[in-house]
Amino acid sequence: MSTELDELGYPSPDQSHTYEFYEADARDIPLDDNTVDLVVTSPPYYQKRDYGFDEQIGQETSVDAFVSELVEAMQEWKRVLRPHGSIILNIGDTYERRSLVGVPWKLAEAARDGGWLVRNEIMWIKNGGMPEPAQNRLAQRHENIFHFTPSNEYYYDLHGYSHAFGNGANPGDVWEFGFDRNTGGHLAPFPEELVERCLTMACPPAVCTECGKPLERKLRRTDKLDPERPQAKRAMEKYEQSDLTKEHIRAIQSAGITDAGKAKEIQDGTGRNTDEVQKLADEAKEVLGGYYREFTFAKKETAGWEPQCDCNAGTEPGTVLDPFCGSGTVLDVATRLGFSSRGTDLDPPDDFQMSLEAAAKNK
Ligand SMILES: C[S@@+](CC[C@H](N)C(=O)[O-])C[C@H]1O[C@@H](n2cnc3c(N)ncnc32)[C@H](O)[C@@H]1O
């Protein structure tokens, strides 16, 4: 993670984080309705590993049966998710009779049929991996990660994510990292960075203790540009050498790139009407020429975190659930970053308590 969470301007919840592990089936989660903000999980893959439990998922005799078990589990996770919650899961493909089956997209299609929105398909590019014996095809070096949401009204912090894992601009849907060296003895562990990315992107750092609604980051535009882009640097120089004011920059941002402009609204509460905004934008364009458009990408900064309710009841950290939590990577990372976490698995990890204590100490 390139940035510590403190630098993301996170609010400090009134209550501290908690964690709980349950020996339970992923299709029957022992949690109340509306208590989870994000599910992050790595389900068993189709016909890959026999975990030795009668109730296990993954050993079904057809892909369709496997996919329908996962979709049934997702319906159960929807019950425990708050309305702004979502699911991020990774899923690998497999070969059957020498042909790729297309498991990830069969799952995505079934989820869509079940009412989920498939908001992203992220390509997880793995640096390195196990050698494969096949001599007439390339080794598999990627997996799909899907972001499923029950509606379009889900919690999402693109600003925080982009600052932690990019240079502030939307970093795109390709994630490139290998496995962590210390896998805690588990055969299919999650890399910690994968979990950090999911939490930063879609788990609210604070929610209302009464109604569970998240605090949302409010942004304001600055007049600062990205100095690493040569055009932006030149645009700043032109602006600083001119008589243009911050009002001109705000007018550019209101009017937008095209001459038709987006300046349909009164600019910024200063009482200026659209004609005045357009006039300022035109003046700026005259001076800046082609560099004008650079200011429509000016950086934003956090103005604060706003509650979405009137409860005034205090806040607690957002909660992540991993229903197939294995060695507990999601719970470890959540604890280290100050989120609450819940995990279920048919097979409780031996060193679970120890690893959580270590993660809490490292926080
Ligand atoms: C791919 S592993 C998860 C690895 C985990 N992400 C980690 O970091 O260690 C899948 C896990 O699902 C569990 N599992 C299989 N069927 C299950 C079911 N029906 N309910 C709950 N857990 C199940 C297995 O015991 C295994 O630990």
From TrEMBL:
<protein>
    <recommendedName>
        <fullName>Type II methyltransferase</fullName>
        <ecNumber>2.1.1.113</ecNumber>
    </recommendedName>
</protein>
<dbReference type="InterPro" id="IPR002941">
    <property type="entry name" value="DNA_methylase_N4/N6"/>
</dbReference>
<keyword id="KW-0949">S-adenosyl-L-methionine</keyword>
<keyword id="KW-0808">Transferase</keyword>
<comment type="similarity">
    <text>Belongs to the N(4)/N(6)-methyltransferase family. N(4) subfamily.</text>
</comment>
<feature type="region of interest" description="Disordered">
    <location>
        <begin position="225"/>
        <end position="245"/>
    </location>
</feature>
<dbReference type="InterPro" id="IPR001091">
    <property type="entry name" value="RM_Methyltransferase"/>
</dbReference>
<dbReference type="InterPro" id="IPR029063">
    <property type="entry name" value="SAM-dependent_MTases_sf"/>
</dbReference>
<keyword id="KW-0238">DNA-binding</keyword>
<dbReference type="GO" id="GO:0008170">
    <property type="term" value="F:N-methyltransferase activity"/>
</dbReference>
<dbReference type="GO" id="GO:0015667">
    <property type="term" value="F:site-specific DNA-methyltransferase (cytosine-N4-specific) activity"/>
</dbReference>
<dbReference type="InterPro" id="IPR017985">
    <property type="entry name" value="MeTrfase_CN4_CS"/>
</dbReference>
<dbReference type="GO" id="GO:0032259">
    <property type="term" value="P:methylation"/>
</dbReference>
<dbReference type="Pfam" id="PF01555">
    <property type="entry name" value="N6_N4_Mtase"/>
</dbReference>
<feature type="domain" description="DNA methylase N-4/N-6">
    <location>
        <begin position="36"/>
        <end position="205"/>
    </location>
</feature>
<keyword id="KW-0680">Restriction system</keyword>
<keyword id="KW-0489">Methyltransferase</keyword>
<feature type="region of interest" description="Disordered">
    <location>
        <begin position="340"/>
        <end position="363"/>
    </location>
</feature>
<dbReference type="GO" id="GO:0003677">
    <property type="term" value="F:DNA binding"/>
</dbReference>
<dbReference type="GO" id="GO:0009307">
    <property type="term" value="P:DNA restriction-modification system"/>
</dbReference>
